[in-house]
Write a structure and sequence with these properties.
Helices cover 29% and strands 22% of the residues. The chain is an alpha/beta fold.
Length: 218
């Protein structure tokens, strides 16, 4: 069983200044075994992170957070860029074409482009949903996501969605898999994951609101 933070932003995202080295350091200090650098509309941070950790115990999963016309979608396992500003299902199809998983981050969260605010999930071929996202300011978003996960038998993930490196691991998943990319993807599809962690505190809230104006443009 490993600990995984599947949604972290680095300086390759326009709303983060976190250095990859700092992200790695905090992840290791919190006993996180697997991470994904899921930057907005770019895989460059993910590629760099994988290069930097190729001889490291920390496993980096390729990933990208894509701005679709209907909201944000994680292309978890995607090594190549996925075009932004396409309809939700078209974005998901492109993720699947790469062998990746389409994961819905911060669902129901209208101020952070939560896809399920705008789209009927039954029309989307999603693979998993974040049921614990540490950056939620409105707590009901996580609870609604958990209910959706249980109702539709969708794997539920925990993720920090950290835009500041010190918050890496605030939420995470425990995942039953081998420590390699294919095994991680298969374990998620088989729901061999469980979400853990905490939501946004008042102290963190002030930091998160700093990038709100930037976030609205992503």
């Amino acid at each position: 069983m490993y600990k995984m933070d599947s949604h972290i932003h680095s300086e390759y995202s326009p709303d983060s200044k976190s250095k990859l080295e700092d992200i790695f350091k905090v992840a290791k200090s919190r006993n996180i075994d697997i991470i994904a650098i899921s930057d907005h509309n770019t895989v460059e941070g993910s590629k760099k992170a994988r290069e930097m950790t190729k001889n490291d115990d920390l496993l980096v999963i390729p990933s990208i957070e894509i701005s679709s016309l209907n909201g944000h979608i994680l292309g978890f396992g995607c090594e190549e860029y996925v075009e932004r500003d396409l309809p939700g299902q078209e974005t998901i199809d492109l993720i699947h074409d790469q062998g990746g998983l389409a994961i819905i981050p911060h669902p129901y969260c209208f101020y952070r482009h939560g896809l399920l605010c705008k789209e009927d999930y039954k029309d989307l071929k999603i693979d998993a949903v974040e049921t614990k996202n540490a950056r939620f300011i409105v707590g009901y978003c996580n609870s609604r996501a958990k209910k959706l996960s249980e109702k539709e038998n969708l794997p539920g993930l925990g993720a920090s969605d950290a835009h500041y490196y010190k918050f890496v691991g605030d939420c995470y998943s425990k995942i039953d898999c081998e420590k390699d990319i294919d095994s991680v993807l298969k374990a998620i599809k088989k729901s061999k994951v469980e979400a853990f962690g905490k939501g946004t505190s008042n102290i963190r809230l002030s930091k998160y609101l700093i990038d709100y104006k930037i976030l609205k443009r992503i």
